[in-house]
Amino acid sequence: MSINRLQRVLKRHSYLFALLLLVVALLINFSLQANLFALTTINRNLANSLPLMVLVVGQTVVIIGGGIDLSVGAIVTLGNAILATRIAADASPGDIGLAILLTCGAGLLAGVINGLCVAYLRLQPLVTTYATSFIFSGVALLILPRPGGDVTRDLRTLYLSTPGGIPFTLWMVLLIVVIWLLARGTRYAQFLFATGGKPDAAYFTGVPVNFVRFSTYLWSGLFGALAALALTVSTRTGSPHVGDSMTLQSVVAVILGGTRLSGGQGGVVGSLIGVVILGVISNIISFANVPSWWQTLVNALIIIGALVGPGLVRLARKAVAR
Amino acid sequence: MGLSLSARHIVKRYGGVLALSDGNLEVTSGEVVALMGANGSGKSTLTKIITGVVAPNEGQLLIDNQLARFSHPSAAKRLGIVAVYQELSLIPDMTVAENIWLTHEPMTANFRLRGREMRTRSQVLLDLFSGTVGPALDPEAPIGALAPGERQIVEILKAISAEPRLLILDEATASLDRQQVIRLFDLIKTWKQQGIAIVFVSHRMEEIFRIADRTTVIRNGKTVYSERMENTTEQELIRQMIGDVSLHAAAHLESPAASPVRLRVEGLTAGSVRGVSLQLHDAELLGLGGLQGQGQTDLLLALFGAIPHTGRVLVDDRPVAFRHPDDAMQQGVAFVPGDRSTEGLLLIRSILDNLQLPSWARYGFPLRMPKAYSDATSAARDLNIMMTSLDMLVSSLSGGNAQKVVLGKWLMRKPNLLLLNDPTKGVDVGAKGEFYSLLANLRQSGTSILFYSSDDEELLNLCDRVLVLHDGRISAELRAAGLNHANLVAASMGTEQRL
């Protein structure tokens, strides 16, 4: 393959670098933790990561479209509050179904608010979604002022089950990938990438840029609600700050996965790999017996290294070319 | 297949400016009509109205003898009216195929794109230009990796993929090489046979005579001439474009050929400049003319060190290599940009801040503000800037006064060489007059000036010599008796005319 073809493939499949990082990280992790690939370990790691994985799907779509959503964590908190208060330990499938519908409705409503502000009022996404995150957190607090709730154990059992020897959570991940691959081949996806890539050119060509931008926030709201579902099912309780750290984690995962913040390229597969990488790094730190007061720093340094890597490679190539 | 278009007595006002007072254009199925007009004549306004980008104030647009009113470009598109501009509508990260089919991709029943069909149909379109483009131009190539000519071809194919009935090519040949233009013209001939109506907007006289059947000329917002190509000549077209030929050149200062050469340029290449050589004498006012986008701006930017360039540049016989405007400024070069609101002024800051922006280094640490104020005050007085105080925000100044601030900040540095990039666009007549006398004063104190203007009258009245740029090269050097409007327009179109 000539250099040009190779460059093209790398650009087209932006997750390849992340895949490489993942392999390296897994090897290091494996050297520290012999049972990394045992079924129970995989199940447990996936159960921890699935909420973030679901969350990054929405965030990826928003970022590809040229925006960003800093309220996703708050949407998760809101969803968690609704679910924890509406699903009791003895909840019937009807109750559960209703609670899920309500949560998704809340997520979509949050998306509508974000979308209207960014797409039609032309407000800055960064500042707007940061502001709305406080609104959504506030509503969550109204619903659930103190940690509580006792969600039915049945759901958690399902969540941790291994139908056909494969973790339920892994089935979910595969489902996400399949949905993404199908969606990627639609005209809507073309509109999305065009809007994020060069909005003026897209507008000139007849792409409904405003509507596309608006719709991306609906997606992130919906997936925020679904992430809340995964989280609540596994923790079985509600807590006012449960989603706080997930916002920045989602952005980091998207970038690690090869999607540019400026929009117009990338994909969900890369972001999923990014989430796994974050989890593996965190594993490495705990198994390497890094003293707890160093952990945050080391974690951050590794992430910065992964983020900066491609940029350094580009700089090096430019310096060589000159 | 094709359609007939009749634009009658179109009037368009933008605020107080009358862009079109009587625009007319007729095109029928299967013919190529060239639309010609000088800078600012109103021809791009007319094409925007035809494609639905703007709505006219008065006048009628008849498509196939039916009245049409477009509220949005997509309405015109639906009738089959498609325009090709200079690569404005391509998404860099997406492939050629994706760009060509954007918004009208072939799809399956359940909304999935037919990727293979997109690729094969794109290849069929690309094959129309086979032999004139490199192998890099394939359906899977990202637009960002293509050369400008190749991108322009993709734009053209994108328009064709929409099966237009009226195709408007607006300066579409600007970035194409000779072979590609030949192929495009062959394609235009087939499209004509298929019945497509074509409007060909161009400033290349030679191309117009090759491809057009009829021509329509717009001057000062009015359609003044419409004729079949075989019944007209280059001279006649130029005459129509500029009005009555004024043969007497304006009175000039004697060309200071004897004075030393301040700036010598040899083979400068940068951006759209393709090999320009010139000499500028001490205290000379040398004009740059030609239609917009022929390299004038890039030439000035390169001389100021703002864009990368190759070639030899000598200031006062010393070779220089400006990599940054700072280098140029240290050698006494100043640059006044054309778009003052984005390139020339800090709109939200005061007049003082703007006037002193390049010169703060002279006021020490901590800044000697009283001196800065008094220097700025005298500069403002010399320039006759109408203001209440130096602390006024520059955004509250009128166009002419604001432009004086832009000029003022450079004059305070007493430059040896002043580069002006169309500085009087949008400046009122009174302020223009003051601007001209400022330039005269500068010349008296020895400053050399290189002055690009899109206003032909201005060039003729002010300059001793004018270099006309066409396609990135100098097409003519006009001086003394040869410096008249007809020659200027002829050289702008790339033709010879000696009157």
CATH topology of the largest domain in chain B: Rossmann fold
Low-confidence stretches of chain A: none
How many strands of chain A? 0
CATH architecture of the largest domain in chain B: 3-Layer(aba) Sandwich
Number of domains of chain B: 2
Please give the order of strands in the largest beta sheet of chain B.
6-7-8-3-9-10
Structure description:
The complex is a heterodimer of chains A (322) and B (499). Chain A has helices spanning 3-12, 16-32, 39-64, 72-86, 93-120, 125-143, 153-160, 168-184, 187-197, 199-205, 209-235, 246-256, 268-287, 292-321. By secondary structure, chain A is an all-alpha fold. Chain A has a single domain, classed as ABC transporter involved in vitamin B12 uptake, BtuC (Orthogonal Bundle). The longest helix of chain A has 30 residues, at 292-321. Chain A is globular, with a radius of gyration of 20 Å. Chain A starts with a helix and ends with a helix. Chain B folds into two domains: 5-242, Rossmann fold, CATH 3.40.50; 261-492, Rossmann fold (3-Layer(aba) Sandwich). Chain B is 33% helix and 24% strand. Chain B has 17 helices and 20 strands. Chain B has helices spanning 43-50, 73-78, 96-101, 115-127, 148-161, 178-193, 205-211, 234-242, 296-303, 325-330, 340-344, 351-356, 369-383, 399-411, 429-444, 456-462, 485-492; strands spanning 5-14, 17-27, 32-37, 58-63, 66-67, 81-84, 166-170, 197-201, 214-219, 222-228, 261-270, 273-281, 285-289, 310-315, 318-320, 333-336, 417-421, 448-452, 465-470, 473-479. In chain B, helix 8 (234-242) crosses helix 17. The two termini of chain B are 45 Å apart. Chain A binds chain B through residues 4, 8, 11, 182, 185-187, 190-191, 193-194, 197-198, 200-202, 204-207, 264-265, and chain B through 73-74, 77, 88-94, 98, 102-103, 105, 107, 111-113, 115, 136, 140-142, 145, 158.
